[in-house]
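Troubleshooting log. The previous run stalled partway through. Resubmitting the same two chains, unchanged.
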Amino acid sequence: MLGLMQSQPLMISSLIEFAARHHGDAEIVSRRVEGDIHRYTYKDAAQRSRQVANALDALKLNFSDRVATLAWNGYRHLELYYGVSGSGRVLHTINPRLHPDQIAWIANHAEDQVLCFDLSFLPLIQAVHGKCTTIKHYIALCDADKLPADSGIPNLLSYESWIGAQSDDYDWPEFDENTASSMCYTSGTTGHPKAALYSHRSSTLHAYAAALPDVMGMSARDAILPVVPMFHVNAWGIPYSAALTGAKLVFPGPALDGKSVYELIEAEKVTYAAGVPTVWQMLLTHMKPGGLRFSTLRRTVIGGSACPPAMIKAFNDDYGVEVLHAWGMTEMSPLGTLCTLKNKHDSLSSDEKMTIRLKQGRAIYGVDMKIVDGAGEELSWDGKTYGDLLVKGPWVIREYYKGEGGDPLVDGWFPTGDVATIDADGYMQITDRSKDVIKSGGEWISSIDIENIAVAHPAVAMAACIGVAHPKWDERPIIAVVKKPGMEVTREELLQFYEGKTAKWQIPDDVVFVDTIPLGATGKMLKTKLREQLKNYKLPV
Amino acid sequence: MLGLMQSQPLMISSLIEFAARHHGDAEIVSRRVEGDIHRYTYKDAAQRSRQVANALDALKLNFSDRVATLAWNGYRHLELYYGVSGSGRVLHTINPRLHPDQIAWIANHAEDQVLCFDLSFLPLIQAVHGKCTTIKHYIALCDADKLPADSGIPNLLSYESWIGAQSDDYDWPEFDENTASSMCYTSGTTGHPKAALYSHRSSTLHAYAAALPDVMGMSARDAILPVVPMFHVNAWGIPYSAALTGAKLVFPGPALDGKSVYELIEAEKVTYAAGVPTVWQMLLTHMKPGGLRFSTLRRTVIGGSACPPAMIKAFNDDYGVEVLHAWGMTEMSPLGTLCTLKNKHDSLSSDEKMTIRLKQGRAIYGVDMKIVDGAGEELSWDGKTYGDLLVKGPWVIREYYKGEGGDPLVDGWFPTGDVATIDADGYMQITDRSKDVIKSGGEWISSIDIENIAVAHPAVAMAACIGVAHPKWDERPIIAVVKKPGMEVTREELLQFYEGKTAKWQIPDDVVFVDTIPLGATGKMLKTKLREQLKNYKLPV
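Second attempt completed without errors. Output:
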């Protein structure tokens, strides 16, 4: 027997219309590419999103056609979030930090019909547009009078003249909530990027979950600064959750330096900010010399990579800002865990709380997770045992766009490619990437643990631990080390340095001194390349 | 094109399993009917919910069969919430405050197969079981040794022996998320009660929404006391939202007196409580004489009826507890609006904030609302204009169980039967019931406004305003008044009392002194009966 509740599909358009209706005058403030500050309201944003929808209709775009963006965080990008998905098309946010060839490859693979870009990316578009075979319309996110002459880009239109010609009256269509709404390509370190294809249902459920008190804790009392980019995994879903809650939105545009971010936080009375550690490091570096303080900032969520303990301490102890660790991935819309404490932790000392805060956090309802051994058997949640981390839930992918890479699921679970521990309270901590962990005699050694010890040595600038085939133990770890300029350390001294810092059997079998360790576009070490470089290396007997 | 996210239905069973897995040792504390305190964890609750599911299978209950409860807030009731719905049956919570004949009528109408009841309701069951034609199994929520001998109820089983025989291993089925999960009958003032039939989808979406920071703001850091009964509209969904967030749950059982509630709040470090004004009044009355304070309570949500301003002030100013007005109804699962302030209200004075706090609040994302005039035209949101309040959303009913009462929707909107204003910021305020508002010359007069003025007169104990047919104005208001014992007031004095307190045309045409005003079971004035009593009344010419 079915229930007798209203059958209303979960639609992304309903988020912006809710905000326009119930939080019509709540502000959306953007620092523009031009450097000035633009401010308007949810009501304005909804009107202009409807103009975007009409403009897409006028281009004769079909249902589910892809519309790409190459843009910073700002109000026009927000209008595209709603206008594109709300009218039934698919928003394809492209990461401008990818190699131009990869951008062209992605646009062709997605079969993008339209590309909307901030003027700061004009040189990039000029370089790649000739290789983009499916894009029919190029839109520059600017006023008509800012449109560059002789750009060399065919039929280039300014966003303002494009939508300005359209009515702000539009009946958002209702359709199957499982319809694709947006897509994002992973920055895969091997092979071509693969795309997650989100739906209206997954994005709306994620929007509810992301706003929960133990997740991002978003409300109409907040002014929220998403430093996390809208060009990657929907800025952690903040553009959706903000509309769901009626929170004030503050967009930083391209100005992510410490001074710009600090001034925006203060001027717009930001209460909550979300970003990656590098941006927060620039912010703290800017604030320290002049003894600057936050007047309104209370909470920040940090994700993308593990946050250094010193940064958590600085925010917490020196500035009174609560730092929450987040973990997720493109394939998860992206949020999987948040590190908020529980009722039972109230009485812990601040050091004990810090031990928990350093973990990636506990699962949000909607996401389940488990760790498994090499045979796929579930491992215990004791905070020590580690295994491959698998997740499932309504905002986790079941496969990649166009079926690339085949069926990624294992019994309905998505393998994250991370190795992690989970403690008895459900707090997960990433210990390594699955492909980097060293499997020695049936036991696993975290390459990150081994690297962390090496870089603690005063003469070590950078260190990468990889596994090398071993006749008896299958694999044994070695450590590749870049010395600091003018500093010296010998193989024996470094191996000696490991004594007492880890179990004997986890100490690397050898140290290899190298001039550089290959890095990817996002600053991550490329261990595949390192393994190639060292392919003729032989373990000492 | 569909998205490529995992297709996982929203299932109520996943809430309790999430809590067991990720918040396994979070506490659930219950004051039992026996008076003692019972404590266990979400892990225990999940195990016993699975035993309930197995016990229902053992009774050969079919999918969607109804299982009724007549029970206070407590851990066994919680297990039924999950065991019944999770296994695909429908939980039918019965309000024990209804008339016994109505309880029997409801049980027959729902075609309940099983009835689980607290021992405090044994006399009630003894009185009605002979009239309940569909119930095959009676379960007393008690230990085997507490089972009354010679109860006269056929095949009476104790809950503990019933589930004790079952395994706590159970694979929760997955099925269409629109499947009915629970039902609740409205306490309709006219005709037979009608039932809302909730679904797994509607309950899960409501659970997300209810936990949001601007709604009930529930988190794993909270200890939550739902004083609102689990026998009516799922205790505002708290049993679901608590599991979703891992919050500690504190159940008061039948002891709702001020002393018991106060002691429980203090002993269990309750941070958040939800209830109706009468219970909070008893609590404040208990606390005042001894100068008692709250150590941990920070927030309370009050709904069910409008909260007196003095109570909001007392909680806020004297005890430092934030009071949030809530509004909803059985047909809405039940939450529609919560009264939390916005970012823009930060700088208001406390008096200005109080003016907002007295309203019923703003819509939660998922619920939309509008006010319309007699012709169904939408009215403006100016905080003054009032009209019939209509709502829609995925946790609002589309029709009643068995189609009773026909199609209630108007163009997809559910008419709440309330008359309300909505201000420019989306804050809704109930001004009257639709059937009680007086329509005079095309304008509407709120019967509640007219009553509030009358009861402000020192000689008036109770007042009811009703409309009387008028040849020119269609309807004109009159006020029926019960005088306080030993006090006097004349018709002319009372009409004089209205001068300057409301618009001239809203002043009643007449005062009728009566000995009593008929009241319903829940203390509400029965204006239908009053109108009957006064059917021969004639307006003065």
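Takeaways: The radius of gyration of chain B is 24 Å. Chain B has a mean pLDDT of 94.
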